[in-house]
Design goal:
The chain has 296 residues and is α+β, with helices and mostly antiparallel strands. It contains 10 helices and 6 strands; from the N terminus they run H-H-H-H-H-H-H-H-E-E-E-E-H-H-E-E. The longest helix has 22 residues. Bound molecules: zinc ion. Keywords: Nucleus, Transcription, Transcription regulation.
Amino acid sequence: MQAESSTAPSDLQTLQRQIQDLTELYNKLQNLRQIPSALLTSISNDMPFIGQTRPEFQRLKEIGEDIRSSPIQEALLRAQDSLKNDGTEINSNPRRENRRRRRPPSPASPQPYISKAALEPRAFPPAAGNVQALSAEELIGYVKEYNLENKTKLQIWRRTADEPKTDLPSLLRFTIPDVVTVYISIGYHGGHGTILVENMAAFAPREKKAPHLQSEYTVYQNLSQQFARVLHSHPNISFQSAMSLLCSYELLFVDQCVGCGRVLSVEGHVPPVVRLWKDGEEGRWEPRHLTCRRDQ
Ligand SMILES: [Zn+2]
């Protein structure tokens, strides 16, 4: 029996191998989904580094070859046959299921189905259909209006007093009095100069540090790192969405973590620096500690 299995793999072994191959391929394809946005930002922000996108194209090519290889093709055919012969109609692909359910409801169905996935917290509120990404020429108006409507403050920031004024400012300063100061670095993309948020660096209210430096305090360092993570995974997020996120920190030192119910984390004694958007009738930002966060 043993001798037999060492020469020709049993059907069970082949099946296990094929399941493993397809799982690996699925994971690779999931990673691939990040490439288009990564390409866009690296091309628009850093033309000289365009060569850095070559590995991404190489990965695309390799995965294409993987898919065409005969072991994967055999595994896919077997999976297809298995699905055809399966009378249970249990769909093991939740992603496809959700996409189908999210189609706009027909007029005859007044109660749209809200899938469970839509209720999971996410990094940003779903963009309201009528909100356009902010463009360069709208920025000054947006800042003025923001300051009229809010207690927190948004300013176009010049690094030095003699830095000339420009139509395309690259730095803004957001202030929640006595809580946090955030320097927002922005860039511009496309013909209308759509604003891209490149970086957000958090500092203590009275900390006198240049925007490109790092705060001396752990909580603000953690906050800056959290911003970097969010912007890295959502490189094309609108300026308005970034502002919505920033405004959610007004009670940074008061808000309790929805994960553990504490203000200060057990480890490190840091307030909840993570914010995840929870959909609902109103929708709200939920504070979490770094250690209590779920995947974003
Ligand atoms: Zn917590």
